[in-house]
Design goal:
The structure is a single chain. 28% of the residues lie in helices and 27% in strands. It has 294 residues and is of the alpha+beta class. A hairpin with a 2-residue loop joins strand 6 and strand 7. The chain is built from seven helices and twelve strands. It has a single domain, classed as PPM-type phosphatase domain (Phosphatase 2c, domain 1, 4-Layer Sandwich). It is globular. It has a six-stranded antiparallel sheet. Strands 3, 4, 5, 6, 7 and 10 form a six-stranded antiparallel sheet that branches.
Amino acid sequence: MSATVGKPLIDSIDVNRKPRDDEIDVYGLTHTGKVRDENQDHFLLSSIHKHVEILNTSLTGRQLLPLADERVAFLAMVADGVGGGEGGEEASATALQNALQYVVKSMDCYYRSDASENAFIDALQETAEACHRAVVARAREEGVEGTMATTLTLWFGVWPWYYLLQVGDSRYYLWREGVLTQVSRDQTIAEELVEKGVFTRAIANRSQFAHVLSSSIGGEQTMPVVTRLRAAWNNVHLLCSDGLTKHVSDEQIAHRLSTMTTARQTAELLLQDALDGGGTDNITIILGRANPRD
């Protein structure tokens, strides 16, 4: 699924160079919406760095070589809780807490000399399964009756690659050279019926099953999908819960990204679009891009 709106202007840069920290423009927000009493969405943005701590030395400050706290990776996550009461909020929070822990532990995949190309993909699969076990355990501890589950959309960038982990129907969009593409696949009953030829796309969008999850963290079935993609300076990344896409079309999202000045401003405009469209659900948005300064 894609929408096309005008081409971006990209300055002449060394496309092989990793963006510096001051060249990353990223912003996240979450809002209860106009109808719900509580916000069961959560999001997380994290920059993972190498850290050098000098415990003791005879060198003076001038003699020390500059030790940059180099960024190793960037992590962005959105989780949309499912279930009444505090179950959904607790599920989404538990998923993000455990995902952060497991992703950081899995970073050794990039430093082992014997690590295979698929090692980190396997590690992300295990991350989703670990989050699932944690949410199930928390539901048992809290004595939750009924559903306590969440979606999880996780973006992990290690230049020059990035990885997408998807469970549920929170989405990841890529906007590049004027084209908006929904990279993630909604894990819903309606989407499965479209793939089987039972529903047309138009029928699926209006169906009662459009937002009924076929896969979730903590639910009856968890089917994590991991995708590896090539990073590029002219990529714009959007992660969002379905509180945005219920009310804002792909064409409107593409329009907002085509006129993007900063991640914060555009995220706030998209939030207002969702509220103006009805705001019937919690709304969470993360926008990020590389913004060359040289």
